Amino acid sequence: MKYKDRLEKLIVEKDGLITTKQVEESRIPRYFLTLLMRNGKLERVARGVYLTPDAFDDEMYRLQARNNRIIFSHETALYLHGLTDRDPLELSVTVPRGYNATNLRKEGIRVYTVKKEFFQMGIIELKTIYGRPVKAYNLERTICDIVRNRNNMDIAILNDAIKRYIDYQGRNIPQLLRYAKKLNVQKIIRKYMEILL
Q: CA 105, CA 160: separation in Å to the nearest integer?
């Protein structure tokens, strides 16, 4: 199969949004991205991210494609999990301490930092509203994160998210308490559990 055909097939597989990294991993020369752009079949929407004219621009997927170390967290993770009905006004991500997040902050992204030993804890893959995969924290880690940041967020969102978590069939209270202990919010989480359970 020719490179151009392979690239077009890959673009279809990725629902019209493709990254330079995906093209390189498929061993297709970058030149063919340029060729499709010249022919109007692709548009560069960000550094290393390309979109077909008929595809939806998925901001979350695009952001993570450009910054593969970020993990969606806090209010954004609540939204991805369905624990809030409010679209996040700004995307929230977590990065390991020492990561240079200056460009993310300039773009209006809310950036949280954690110790490197806690960064990987609870990472899962979720789907954006366009069905594309992104990395986010699981429910239990997300609940711990919003409780840790409770003084800087809307209390109504916090309370509603915890109530929805308690009603959620797939909740894992033992895991929640393990994460709470590691993240030093065990007492506060236990108080919420005593009130709501």
A: 27
- Read off the pLDDT of residues 36-46 as tens digits, 9 standing for 90 and up: 999 999 998 88
Q: In sequence order, what are the residues at sequence separation of 6 or more whose Cβ sits closer than 8 angstroms to the Cβ of residue 95?
A: 69, 70, 71, 101, 104, 111, 112, 113, 114, 119
Question: Which candidate, 149, 59, 145, 68, places its Cα nearest to that of 107?
Answer: 59
Unique residue bearing structure tokens 């109504």: 156
* CA gap 147, 138 in Å, rounded: 14
C-alpha 54/C-alpha 57 separation (Å) is 9
Distance CA 122, CA 138 (A): 5
Q: What is the pTM of this model?
A: 0.86
Count other C-beta atoms under 10 Å from residue 170's C-beta.
Answer: 7
* Dist CA 22 CA 10 (whole Å): 9
Percent of the chain with pLDDT over 70: 99
| SS3 state of residue 19 | strand
Which token pair is 43? 């548009």
Could you tell me which CATH number the domain at 3-56 has?
1.10.10
> What are the sequence ranges of the domains in the chain?
3-56, 61-196
